[in-house]
Amino acid sequence: VGLFETLETGSPSVEYLLMQWSKQLLLNSQLLQLHVPQVYGQQQQLTTNGPSQKCNVDGSVKIACGEPGLNATHCEAINCCFDGQYCYYGRTVTVQCTRDGQFVLVVAKDATLPRLSLDSVSLLGENGPCGPVDSNAAFAIYQFPVTACGTHLGAHLVYENKMTSSYEVGMGPLGAITRDSYYELYFQCRYYAMSIGALTIRHYANDPPLPVVAPGPLRVELRIGNGQCATKGCVEGEAAYTSYYKDTDYPVVKVLREPVYVEVRILERSDPNIVLTLGHCWATSSPNPFSVPQCPYKDDRYLTTLVPVERSPAVPFPTHYKRFVLKMFAFVDTTSMVYIHCSTAVCHPSNPQCRSLAPPESAVVSSGGVVFIEMA
Question: Where does the record place the P-type domain (predicted)?
């Protein structure tokens, strides 16, 4: 009976899978010729691929899983893939323990994205039978005694080892680049009086590399939406952000108490890991953002409403946008020219100051003039 157990460790990148009992491992004679003793320990699901992606293995590199003649039910029970004819390993990493004290480790190149570099896979020890016993373009197979390759002996006959896959760094005209994943896998064989168990621990030592970014100054723009509803059932607040006033349209005329749809956005950037923040926004009667009097957005909770920004074809990076709606009730007099200003900052979400109301190194962005009139 296989036992699958996930333990809460406080880190979503570490999984513990405890398995018992399996079938004899035989590799398809038409693919790779490898025969090992009777194997105990259910196959480990360590790939980041979904079920359909895991089993998408090219026929030329398939490796049979379990003993010949397994049906789909038994194949799925040992966490392998079934194509209607035979059982085979998916795009994952499999650890098995044999009754005669052997580790069997099957590593798929596509276990991670970016792919693993099979040539860089190593164990704790480099001497003896620590290299792959067989391989093809997509898989590497290791088999070695539990006492070899730097394996540590724990209490109650617990043998532990570690597999690592490093990455190759290539130098190009614009700098260094890598297309491989760094991967670590801790695995154990536990021998008891009546059974054999296998334990694997997956550990991601580093976060995935950040997307490529371009150097240079960041540009932020404040603009006012002027989209109109043209169909029945249209939501005015959503339609307003489908088009915007151009520079040549200013000054624009608004009626007092009419909603003003404001958007602040980052220009010419495609990095999903940067976030636009607003310190506060306010209005003045001159283009100078520091002139007085001012109508503060910061404390104007009743007249200003933040608008959530959802991903769409027009907005591929929602964190690059901030939207809000304001209604001007009175400002100096009913024909004043009003300018809207916001203090902005761009930061990485991992920075604790990214969420502060007054982030450091902020810049001020402003709108064109808006004339508010009182309707008779």
Answer: 53-91
Structure-block tokens of residue 23:
């079938």
Of 135, 170, 203, the one marking the end of a domain is: 203
Backbone angles phi, psi at 184, to 5 degrees: -125, 140
pLDDT of residue 211: 53
In a domain, 4, yes or no: no
Residues 193 and 243 in one domain: no
Note whether 189 and 146 are within 8 A (CB).
Answer: yes
- The CB-side HSE value for 28 (13 A sphere, CA atoms) comes to 16
Span 263-290, pLDDT tens digits: 999 988 888 888 888 877 888 888 888 7
Question: Which residues form the domain of 256?
Answer: 219-373
Residues facing 39 on adjacent strands = 98
156 plus 243 within the same structural domain: no
Residue spans of the chain under pLDDT 70: 1-52, 126-128, 152-156, 175-176, 178-179, 191-217, 293-303, 329-336, 351-362, 373-376
Q: How many CB atoms lie within 10 A of CB 266?
A: 21
Is 0.85 surpassed by the pTM of this model?
no
Do residue 223 and residue 198 come from a single domain?
no
Angle among Cα 208, 205, 88 to the nearest 5 degrees reads 80
The residues facing 94 across adjacent strands are 106
Within 8 A by CB and 6+ apart from 139, the residues are 32, 61, 63, 89, 106, 107, 108, 109, 118
Contact (CB, 8 A) for 225 and 242? yes
- Cα–Cα distance between 360 and 344 in angstroms, integer? 9
C-alpha pair distances (Å), 293 with each of 148, 290, 331, 332, 338: 78, 9, 9, 9, 11
